[in-house]
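Researcher: I'm preparing a figure for a lab meeting and need a structural model of a single chain. I don't have an experimental structure, so a prediction will have to do for now. The sequence is pasted below. Please return the structure as tokens so I can convert it later.
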Amino acid sequence: MCIRDSLWGADNKGAMVRAVGGRLENRSGEPAANPYLYIASQIVSGLDGLKLGRDPGPPTESPYATEAVRLPRSLGDAVTELAGDAVFADALGRNVVDWYCRIKRDEYARYLAHVSDWEQREYFHLF
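Model: Understood. Here is the structure written out token by token.
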């Protein structure tokens, strides 16, 4: 699921893209994201939407509804989506996407191998 499949809303703070006061506000950014890659992803998605003449449809009134398209729930899921996305492979190059996915898969594996504070508090007393 890429940003190009997201919902928009008119002055709706829950929508990923908010149209308010004659401007667009992209609310899907992650503060920890690389700003260059984040902006590049927005440009790639926007150009793809223009090229295909995508209609954004009507504004959403309920962005948290269960039928709304959701972003991946984990870094692992996001990497899987990126790896299979032909638009990003065409725009950035298959080698770049594969390289980036490899780095992120390794990063996610290190994260999964870490025992969190929550896990220690939750399960330490069992032993």
